[in-house]
């Protein structure tokens, strides 16, 4: 499991805590929703889980061990803004080959056209570039995905296409997925379990009945 235990984080010694005593865990193949209004630290919590930020207190572990500090990380974070994760000076083909190139089946599932591969990032729309940012982490070396408002900027049809492609990868590879969003209807369609960030310590489960996108659902525990 990917676990965050008693996580605390703030951006400066004299600034307020952004994350306070939060604990959560996601299992291989599980789709876990993380919901909260703006300002509750859900993006920062996602960065802690992915190893982008070191917690001031607490620890993040994968299978009981700290996240590796070198090489390709088994926990990959997908930002809301794809510009944060691609080199603007590289062509799309080089961006996709930087780590472990995704299979063509995943490119097709995300609606990525072969004509995009020779272009630079600025020559794609935001939605097209987001598909590239997602595709580049869909490989067997990724064990967990943290999706931070990944499709918030996209229209409903494109959202559905992308989530279907990502969930097919999650099911096939038994990858754990954390979906960070304030969109409750979307989370209810995607997730096995939804945790709500509230004032206090650990996130609270929101009971729900899955509505789609995912073939099986269960109530939160």
Automatic annotation (TrEMBL):
<dbReference type="InterPro" id="IPR017871">
    <property type="entry name" value="ABC_transporter-like_CS"/>
</dbReference>
<comment type="similarity">
    <text>Belongs to the ABC transporter superfamily.</text>
</comment>
<keyword id="KW-0813">Transport</keyword>
<keyword id="KW-0067">ATP-binding</keyword>
<dbReference type="InterPro" id="IPR003439">
    <property type="entry name" value="ABC_transporter-like_ATP-bd"/>
</dbReference>
<dbReference type="GO" id="GO:0016887">
    <property type="term" value="F:ATP hydrolysis activity"/>
</dbReference>
<dbReference type="InterPro" id="IPR027417">
    <property type="entry name" value="P-loop_NTPase"/>
</dbReference>
<dbReference type="GO" id="GO:0005524">
    <property type="term" value="F:ATP binding"/>
</dbReference>
<dbReference type="Pfam" id="PF00005">
    <property type="entry name" value="ABC_tran"/>
</dbReference>
<dbReference type="GO" id="GO:0055085">
    <property type="term" value="P:transmembrane transport"/>
</dbReference>
<dbReference type="InterPro" id="IPR003593">
    <property type="entry name" value="AAA+_ATPase"/>
</dbReference>
<keyword id="KW-0547">Nucleotide-binding</keyword>
<feature type="domain" description="ABC transporter">
    <location>
        <begin position="2"/>
        <end position="220"/>
    </location>
</feature>
<dbReference type="InterPro" id="IPR050319">
    <property type="entry name" value="ABC_transp_ATP-bind"/>
</dbReference>
<protein>
    <submittedName>
        <fullName>ABC transporter ATP-binding protein</fullName>
    </submittedName>
</protein>
